[in-house]
Amino acid sequence: MENLSRRKALSLGVALGLVGVANPVHAWASTGSGTGAAAGTGPEWIWDDAADPLMASMLDKGHVPAINTAWASWVNNNDPLPSGLPADFAAYLRQVNRLPSWADPAKLARAADFNRRKDTYLFMLYGLGSGIMSTVIPREAKSVYWSAGGADMQDRAAKTFTFGYDLSELGAFGPTGQFVVTANKTRVVHAAVRHLLPQSPHWRAVADETIPISAADILVTFHSLGTYVYRKLLDWKVPFPAADQEAFLHSWQVAIHLLGVPYEHIPRTWAEAEKQSARVLTPILTPSTEGIALAEELLGLTAQIDLGVTRGFLNEFVRYVLSDEVGDWLGLKRDYASAALVRTAWPAFILFREGLSPVMPGTFYMFDQFVRALAMLFLNKGSSGSTTPITIPTGNRAG
C-alpha cells in the first residue's frame, strides 16, 4: 500500500461532508462527556457561535467567490493568510487556526504513523463502512443530498477527500502539515451550509430539524467514522496496541475540536465513545429516500473504472462491514458466491498482511489492487494529481 501512503482512508466517509444527525436530548445524558443534558444545554443545541454569523455575512455580501479564490493558495499550517480575504474573515481565521493547548504532539505523530501502517483497513472501513453507513443516517443523508455537493457526489468526494488525506499525513498537525488549515476550511463550509440549507424548500420538506450540523451532528459522524473503525479493527483482530489506540483517539479528539465541538462534549476514552455511540448512533440508523439514492450513486461510481471486482462483490463487502440489514435497506442485490469469498478471504488477507500466517491467500493481490483502485476513484475523480481544494458553497441543490 505504499502508493496509498499519501492518499489514505477517509474519502467516502468524509465525502459525505462530516454532517451528522442530531438526536433527542436524553440520548446525550450520562455519557460521561457532555456536562449538560437538559434542553438547550447539550451538544444538539450547540452550533458555531464564531463561524455561523461570519459566514452568513460573507454569503449575504457576496464575498464567498473571492474567498475561494484567495484561500486556494493557503495550504500548510504555517502558511501566512493570503491577501484578498475580507478583514473580518481573516481576523476569524487568525483566531482559530491553531492547535488547542491540550493537543499532544507525540500522540498526534504516533496516530499519523498508525494511519500509515494500517491504511488498507482504514480505507476499506472508512470508505465502504463509514461512507455507506452515513447514507442510513437519515438527517445526514437528507442534508448531504439537498446541499450543493449532493448533485455531484464524485466531485464532492474528490473535494472532501482532502480532509481525510490531510488528517492521515505524517506531520499532519505540524507546521508543514495541512490538517489544521483543512479542518478550519471544513468548519467554515459547515457554517455556510447551516446558513444555506434552511433556505432550500426541498430540504425543509423532508427535514425534522431547523438547523443542520450541530455539535451533536459532528459527534455522531465521528462515531460513524472513528468509533466504528476502532471497534472493527478490534473485531478483526488487527494488532492494535494500547498506545496506538490512544493516539488514534487523540487525533480524532483534536480534529473534532478544530471543527468547533466544545472540549467538554468530546469523549475522553474509547469506552466512553463506544457508550455514547450506542446511545446516539446505533438507534437512529434507518433508510431514507435520499440515503438510498446516495448509496446507489456512490457505489455506482465504481463502474467508471476497472476495480477488478464485480458490483456483486462490492455489495457483499458492504454487507460484510455493516450488516445484511443495512444491505437490505439499501437494496443491495445478493451475490452469494462473492459473500462466501469476502467472509473467508478477507480474514485470511489480514492474517497474512499482519504476519500472523505464513500462507498468502490466492486472493491477496485481488484485495490489494481493489483497495488501490477504489482509492484512486475518489482521488480527483480517478486521476493521480493532488487533492481537490475545499471550497465554500454559495447555494443548494436545485432539485
TrEMBL record:
Signal in keyword set: yes
Keyword Signal: yes
Position of the signal peptide: 1-27
GO MF terms held by the record: oxidoreductase activity
Domain ER-bound oxygenase mpaB/mpaB'/Rubber oxygenase catalytic, first and last residues per copy: 122-343
Coiled coil spans: none
Entry keyword set: Signal
Name of the molecule in the record: DUF2236 domain-containing protein
Organism: Streptomyces fungicidicus
